[in-house]
Amino acid sequence: MSATAFDNPRLVADIGGTYARFTLETAPGVFERAATLRCADHADFHAAVSAYLQTLPEGRIAHAAVAIANPVEGDEVRMTNYHWQFSIEAMREKLGFDTLVVVNDFTALAMALPRLASADRRQVGGGQARERSVVGILGSGSGLGVSGLIPADDGWIALGTEGGHTSFSPRDERELAILHFAWKTLPQRDGPLPNAAPPSGGGPLQADPGANKHVSFERLLSGPGLELIYRALADRAGTRAAKGLSAPEITRRALAGSDAVCVDTLDAFCAMLGTAAANLAVTLGALGGIYIGGGIVPRLGDTFDRSRFRQRFEDKGRFSAYLAQIPTWVITAENATFHGVSAILAAQLRNLSGAGASAILGQIQRARPNLSPAEKRVADHVLAHPRSVLNDPVAEIARASQVSQPTVIRFCRSLGCEGLSDFKLRLASGLTGTVPVTHTQVTGDDSVLELGTKVLGNTASSILQVRDHLNRDSIDRAIALLSAAHRVDCFAVGYYGAVAQDAQYKFLRLGLPCGAYTDPRVQMLAAQVLGRGDVAFIVSPSGRKDELLAVAGAARDRGASVVAITASQTPLARKADVALIVDHVEDVDLHLPMVSRVLHLLMVDIVSVGLAMQRQQSLAPPVGSDADEPRLTPRARSVAPGVSAATPLANITSHSH
Q1: Local structure of 628: helix, strand or coil
Q2: Torsion angles phi and psi, residue 12, rounded to 5
Q3: Is 331 exposed, middle or buried (0-12, 13-18, 19+ CB in 10 A)?
């Protein structure tokens, strides 16, 4: 039986700062024997898990997955809003599990979003989600969780973030009073929230008024945050705050309308959450929508729908219209996090049982017989403790393996890695099942091979991002204009002149009369002799160059059409008849453009391929004709390496809106 089959029930858990929730997954999406334990009733994570396991009938649990309210990076877990901490690998061995996956709770909740049914969410306000677009999620409980979901191929990549710790900024006098109160009462450092237990052997945290001006959104948009807002507004109103009034009681009184300060507290909470949600939406470009989860908002019901949350969400000045189109939902499903962490565990088990993301571990096992005795000791240590290796420095890995530090580096290089950092990146992808698409900064300390790897990786990442935002309609219209053109002139300035010259070469090979102009004075002369039926093909990553905007204006005044490769929401994009959008702009004042120039060249290739295909179809003989196949130019038959001229355009564009 495969490792992904349910030969044994799987333990799934959701650990917060107040409660630890457990369940058994007995079949995909089927959860039984759910239990909720108070964290304060158990000394540590192991004690809480053991207490739950003791309630189960006899039978071994081989695989477990835990969503926990703190960042998870490597093997060591330290809860942000509670005092529990543990090693994942040590805990796996202590509990006797074959697999123990630990992920951030909002990463798990994000992975549940694609599986939510319409009955599992409630929309608040207007907006329409854009298909296969970035999604944002946040929610209040013991803290403020924030995550995002990025479409990738046929699946999704969840972002592990700590966005709840971004700095709060007030929007009105009431919120300014809340901020001043927080400055006076919060500890010097923005450490654990007030309900967190102090470190072992330590005393209570002491406030140091005004010593630390950073107040995070989590300090206010959480259970402890509700209590802080209540005390602040009671102070502002000149009334005595009810001693020890808890967040649940504040919420109960607010919903009942029995306490004016509690009503004011909940109103401020919902408004500030609208600001936090709007910040997340514009930061991620979350056109797929914003979801609200956590333990507080889903319990507010219609009161939240009628609150100022949505009004504040859309109140973003020049970007109000942008946010008005983004929908917001409240997650109503009770076990959403369980579904998300279950999906992550299932993906992990599939990877570990195959040759996917765990390829580096399989590679170590296959290479082991050919390693030196010292390198074998490193291999054995990595295979036995893969998660701890992620966090350990080279000195610790060498000590644990009883070898020298150079031996550790030689071991990494024997596997084809550039060094320990590269090895850890591959190992991390194997343990998490995901490979993030990122931009890596090139540094002066990089070797030639490291530099090459980073440049190629950054370029590949950017190509994938542009691929996912290709617009089929714009490409089709650009090809139609070029195909019908009497003449095409290409315009660019500076480093992008090479793109214009590349376009000229390709269009000439397709039989189109074409010129390329990079000197501003000659550009205007060329634009002023274009006429109806001609096309000005303009390349500008910024879309704001005055000389190219003048060319676009002159061409259109003469009746010519304008096709532009440029960034979205730019003056050139608005002037053009067709804009082919490439949203990757490099600052040429700081460095030579590399990635963006490649992206522009690829956009020229896409148009050229489509143009060649259209010309081939127009020259094809009627069905049943005995005529020979029309003779095309060499460029029309070989438009791009590895791309046949018969390839459907839909396969080239890959994704469209």
Answers
A1: coil
A2: -125, 135
A3: buried
Task: Please name the residue that has the structure tokens 């956590």.
Answer: 294
How far is it, in rounded angstroms, from Cα 518 to Cα 505?
15
Can you list the domains of the chain with their CATH numbers?
10-104 (3.30.420.40), 122-197+209-332 (3.40.367.20), 355-436 (1.10.10.10), 469-621+628-653 (3.40.50.10490)
216, β-bridge pairs = 167
CA dist., res. 479 & res. 471, Å (int): 13
Structure tokens at 279: 């910040």
Q: CA 170 to CA 106: how far, in whole Å?
A: 25
Q: Can you tell me whether residue 451 is helix, strand or coil?
A: helix
Distances (CA, A) of 354 to 2, 167, 431: 10, 43, 13
**How many Cβ atoms are within 10 Å of 138's Cβ, its own excluded?**
28
pTM confidence score? 0.52
Residue 594 · residue 579 · CB < 8 Å: no
Q: Across residues 105-129, what is the average pLDDT?
A: 89
DSSP line for 455-511? HHHHHHHHHHHHHTT--HHHHHHHHHHHHH-S-EEEE--GGGHHHHHHHHHHHHHTT
Who has greater pLDDT, 357 or 177?
Answer: 177
Q: Cα(first)–Cα(last) distance of the chain, in Å?
A: 42
- Residue 330: predicted pLDDT: 95
Q: Which residues contact 150 (CB under 8 A, 6 or more apart)?
A: 134, 156, 157, 158, 159, 437
